Amino acid sequence: MRLLDRIVQSRAPLLIARGSEVVRLPGPADFAAAVASCPLRLVLTDPLTRVCASLAYAEGDRLAGCLDLVHVPSQAVWVEWLDAPRLDVVSRALGLDATSAHGPATRAGVYVVTDAVGRRGEARTFWGPVEGEDEARLAPLVTEFDLDRDDGGTGSIADVFGGASARLAAQDPALASILRCLRFRFDDCWAAYYRAECASAAARESVLRASLATVATDLPVLFALCLLLSSRTRLPGHRPDLTRLNRRRAREGRAALLDHTELTVPVMSAYATSAPGADPRRAPRLHHVRGHIVRRGSQVFWRVPHLRGRAAFGPLRARSLTLHFESRSRASTEGRPLDGHGAARRDYASPLPGGAP
C-alpha cells in the first residue's frame, strides 16, 4: 500500500503515556484530511528517486547551481518514494555508514505547503513499512525552507526545545548553499513533550540528533525533483486507473485508494547513427551518456540517457547503462552513521551532518 493511503486511512490519534497522564501528540491521523485533499500527489519510481538524490548530493551536475530556478509546483503537494534507493545514494555521496538502516523496506514521503510563489514553506516528513499492518509515523520535526534566504543563525540546543530552529552546516560549498535555506524546528506539542521527558542536556541533544537524522536529507531531494519538473524535458508520468480496484474495495468495506501520479525518468532515446565526418578518427565509438542537467540562462534542460557515437567504430562495452553520478568528496560528516526512515531510526542517536546547530 502506498504511504499516502496509510496516512489517509489513519484514524487512531497518537497517545503516549507520561506518568499518570496520557498526552496526545501530532500523528498521521491529524494530516489525513490534508493529504486526502492535496491537489498534487506524486509517487516516484526507484530510478527517479536515485536521479533526484544524485542531483542533490553527488558531484557533477549539481542542484546548488540552479536553486534560483526551483519552485514547488503547487501550494500543497505530497511526494513519496521507496527510501532505500535515496538512502543508498545519499550515504555513498556523503561518505556515511548506512548499514544500520538496512532492514524492512520503508516508504517515505513529505507533505509540503508553500506560498504562492513556491519558494518558501514547510514540510512534514512521514514514513511507514511497505507491507504489513504497522501504522505510518510522523517526524516530530518540521522542516522550514526559504530558497531566497541563506543567512541567519540559530540558538542553542536548549533554545530549539523552546521553539527555536536548528540549522545544519557542511564543508562542501554546494551542499552548504542548500542547507542554508533550511531550518528545522520541533512541533510545539513535541517540544513540550521532550522538555518534560528529557531532563538533561545530553538527553535533549541525543533526541535532537536522532530527530534530525529522519528529516535532514529529504528536502534537497524534493528540490531536485522540482527542478526536473520545471525543465523543458518533461518527466514521464501516468495516473494508475484505480476504478476497478476501488470498486472491489468498496464491496469489501475497505477505504478507497487515492488517485496519484507516478513519475519516472525518461527512457533512453533511440539511437541514430552519426553522420560520418571528413576525418573518421574524430567520431567517437558508440558509448552511453548518462542523464544530466544543462542550464542555459533561465532554462534547465534534462538530457535523457542516450547513446552517442558511431557503431561502426565498435561499442565501448565497459560503459554502464545505469544512471550514475560520480561520488563527491566527503563532507564534514565523514564516517558518521546515517539512518533511514525505518524503525531503526528510533534505536540510536545519529550525529548531526556538519555539526550541531
What does this structure look like?
- This protein is α+β, with helices and mostly antiparallel strands.
- The protein has a domain at 3-237.
- Helices cover 26% and strands 24% of the residues.
- It is built from ten helices and 15 strands.
- It has helices at 3-8, 32-36, 46-57, 83-94, 157-160, 173-179, 188-197, 201-215, 219-230, 243-251, and strands at residues 14-18, 21-25, 40-44, 76-82, 106-114, 120-129, 137-146, 182-186, 237-238, 261-263, 285-289, 292-296, 299-303, 306-308, 310-315.
- Strand 1 and strand 2 (21-25) form a beta hairpin.
- Helix 3 (46-57) runs parallel beside helix 4 (83-94) and helix 3 (46-57) crosses helix 9.
Layout of secondary structure:
Layout: H1 3-8, E1 14-18, E2 21-25, H2 32-36, E3 40-44, H3 46-57, E4 76-82, H4 83-94, E5 106-114, E6 120-129, E7 137-146, H5 157-160, H6 173-179, E8 182-186, H7 188-197, H8 201-215, H9 219-230, E9 237-238, H10 243-251, E10 261-263, E11 285-289, E12 292-296, E13 299-303, E14 306-308, E15 310-315
Parallel strand pairs: 3-4, 3-10, 11-15
Antiparallel strand pairs: 1-2, 4-5, 5-6, 6-7, 7-8, 9-10, 11-14, 12-13
Strand order of the largest sheet: 8-7-6-5-4-3-10-9
Number of continuous helical runs: 10
Low-pLDDT ranges: 99-104, 268-281, 318-357
Main sheet attributes: strand count, strand direction, barrel closure: 8 strands, mixed
Tally of extended strands? 15
- Mean pLDDT value: 77
Strand content: 15-25%
**In sequence order, what are the helices and strands, one letter per element?**
HEEHEHEHEEEHHEHHHEHEEEEEE
Query: What gross morphology would you assign?
Result: globular
Helix content: 25-40%
Cα-to-Cα separation, first versus last residue: 36 Å
Structural class: alpha+beta
Rg for CA atoms = 22 Å
